[in-house]
Amino acid sequence: MVLQSMRSVAKYIWWILIIAFVGSFLLYQTSGLSGRSPVTTNTAVATVNGEDIMLTSWQNAVSNLEQQEQQRLGRGITLDERRTLEDRAFDELVNDVLLQQEYKRRGITVTDDEIREMARVSPPPQAMQSPELQTEGRFDVQKYQRLLASPLARQSGMLVGLESYYRSEIPKQKLFDQIASDVYASDTRLWQIYKDRHDSAQVSYVLLRPETLTDTAVTVTDAEIGQFYERNKKKFDRPGRAVISLVAVPRTVTAADSVASKAHIDKIRAEIVGGAKFEDVAKRESMDSVSGSNGGALGKGGRNRFTPKFEEAAYALKTGEISQPVLTPFGWHIIRVNEHKGDSLDVNHILVTIAQSDSSATRTDRRADSLASQAANQDDPKKFDAAAKVLGITPASVVAIEKEPLNFAGRYVPSASAWAFSGVSAGETSDLFDSPEAYFLARLDSLQPGGQQALSEVREEIRRRLARDKRVEKLRPSALQLIQAAKGSTLEVAAAAKQLSVEKSAAFTRVDQVAGLGQFNQAVGAAFTVPVGQVGGPAVALDGLAVIRVDRRVEADKAAFETQKIEQRAQLIQSLRQQRVEEYMTSLRGSVKVEDHRAKVNAQLRKQNAGV
Predict the structure, then answer these.
(1) Residue 454, burial from CB neighbour count under 10 angstroms (0-12, 13-18, 19+)
(2) 375 DSSP β-pair partners
(3) Does the first or last residue of the chain, that is N or C, have fewer Cβ atoms within 10 Å of its Cβ?
(4) Residues 107-123: pLDDT tens digits?
């Protein structure tokens, strides 16, 4: 049985290798890289310290990530999702080049013995998650080591894959150890972090707002604006902005469609109640493709995992009971509870969405096909307007932000944003984009590239920011008068004399967002420095200047801290090491010259594909 399981694991790994190879080969043949076009295998999409990253490497990396994402989602990916994967693959390749260069500079190498030992004692995550290598729900290291020692591991190519994995991971671990091995968290630091999260305070406060000033006139000089801009240049990086004309052919659901969906879920429930196996029916019928492929399993968990109607129905069921059809914003559900312990439920479900009937969908498809045949993938912007007029659709003007999905009228418009920033020219129209709610066709009307904004573009924004800060400072004399008056009476009496109100907070810690005061600012800090019962400030708050009286403060429990200190230190050191590595990589990336040629190469490929 164990050897049979091993064969299953090896076969799985082998097929991944085959799929990746075939995918790469097909991509090579169809992307214009085989020598039949100007873009060749020698085309570089980036240069890092003089070392090229080839187009083939980038596209293969994107293809592998795309396959993984499609398997995870159970569907094809949108252009928006692909653009995210493209950036992720690019960053990983750039970082890999930087790491290789850093290994060479530091003399970091890896030996065959190190690979064998690491493979034996530190299995890769994929192996630890493999069901065939589990015993009673836990990873079985003996099964794994027997698999490594079997002829099947070598014959299947599994050992070759593992060697490649460890040749990449071991040098990386050595480098990270060099960078972060000295990270340590002292008891003093741990105690302060614990106090930040467990010391609590309650305050009464008066908030003086700039809007209450009778004289709001302040002067902001050009020199002050220039100085602020120079200090905060990175904050003025802006993404690209595209103006798009958009037409939609909605998949309108009729009353008859709703009735048909309800009849279908009733039929499914009757089949299960009649003796059919829930899991088999879920695999066949559920429109939740992710859980459906696993027999409708949603796993174990506590409350607040599901929509309110679903959760209410699930918690009302007895173990093994089949629910009546439950309507949520996602559609109709049939729910079965497998186990109920306290607030934890193990649940399976079957989903039937409320969608168009075949006849309704056919009519919608015909309208969408008509729109596409007249206006999709066109250079003449007039054809877009003409097609919309023929179909009686009024185009909407929407703004797309680079690397952000486009939403219109409460609906996600797949791929439109990524398309607008893919190198198309103003006036061009897109292909037809398909979503569960509608078909969409877009025309690019204008495009503003992203990047660091010039001072002239943000001058007024900076002026408003500095003017507000100065208006807050104009409140300081009034706040000081209020503090002085409160010391001679009470905060409530002093505030009433100035027709101001006293607000009371709930208990909060140093890291909490506090209603009326904000977070990580002077006002929150004052709550832990002003003596209890006294009035202090003024302190800058979220919306103005605050005068604070500390009503109550509770110190963290030192004994409770001691019981969890070891675990806290381990978690903090891990976090600090990860932070050190990330900072190092960011610094390394910022210190080298990375030339990104992707936009130019993509534009060239677009011309080739268009036959230009």
Answers:
(1) exposed
(2) none
(3) N
(4) 999 898 888 888 888 88
What six digits make up the tokens of 44?
A: 């570089």
Task: Delimit the domains of the chain by residue range.
Answer: 2-180+595-609, 200-216+474-554, 240-252+358-449, 255-352
> Each residue of 67-111: pLDDT tens digit?
888 888 777 888 889 889 999 999 999 988 998 988 998 999 989
Strand (E) or helix (H) holding 596:
strand 594-596
The rounded distance, in Å, linking the Cα atoms of 50 and 45 is: 12
**Strand, coil or helix: 261:** helix
Compute the distance between CA of residue 91 and CA of residue 172 in angstroms, rounded to an integer. Answer: 16
DSSP state of 377: T
Per-residue burial over 262-293, b = 16 or more CB atoms within 10 Å of its CB, e = otherwise: eeebeebbebbeeeeebbebbbebbebeebbe
How many other C-beta atoms are found inside a 10 Å radius of the C-beta of residue 111?
Answer: 9
**Model-wide pTM > 0.90:** no
Interaxial angle between packed helices 158-180 and 112-121, expressed in degrees from 0 to 180 and rounded to the nearest 10:
100
What is residue 132's DSSP assignment? G
The token pair at 311 is: 């959760």
Indicate the Cα dihedral angle 330, 333, 336, 337, nearest 10°: 30
**For residue 174, how many C-alpha atoms fall within 13 Å in the half-sphere facing its CB?**
20
DSSP letter (8 states) at residue 335: E
Fold of 240-252+358-449: Chitinase A; domain 3 (3.10.50)
Q: Over 188-245, what HEC string results?
A: HHHHHHHHHHHCEEEEEEEEECHHHCCCCCCCCCHHHHHHHHHHCHHHHEECCEEEEE
Task: Select the CATH number that applies to the domain covering 255-352 from these four: 3.10.50.40, 1.10.10.10, 3.30.1330.60, 3.40.50.10800.
Answer: 3.10.50.40
Separation between Cα atoms, residue 434 and residue 297, nearest integer Å:
28
| Cα–Cα dist 518/526, whole Å | 12
Phi, psi torsion values for 527, nearest 5 degrees = -65, -20
User: Coil, helix or strand for 545?
Assistant: strand
Q: What is the pLDDT of residue 199?
A: 94
> What does the block give as tokens for 166?
């460890």
Convert the pLDDT of each residue in 155-203 to its tens digit: 788 888 888 888 888 898 888 888 888 888 899 999 999 999 999 999 9
Q: How many CB atoms lie within 10 A of CB 425?
A: 9
What are the pLDDT digits (tens) for 390-417? 999 999 999 999 989 998 887 889 999 9
What backbone phi and psi angles, to 5 degrees, belong to 198? -125, -25
- Other Cβ atoms less than 10 A from the Cβ of 181: the count is 10
Tokens for 369?
A: 């096909």
In words, the CATH class of domain 200-216+474-554 is alpha beta
With contact defined as beta carbons under 8 Å apart, do 534 and 523 qualify?
no
Q: What is the mean pLDDT of the chain?
A: 85
H or E segment to which residue 412 belongs? strand 411-413
Q: Do the domains 200-216+474-554 and 240-252+358-449 sit in the same CATH topology, yes or no?
A: yes
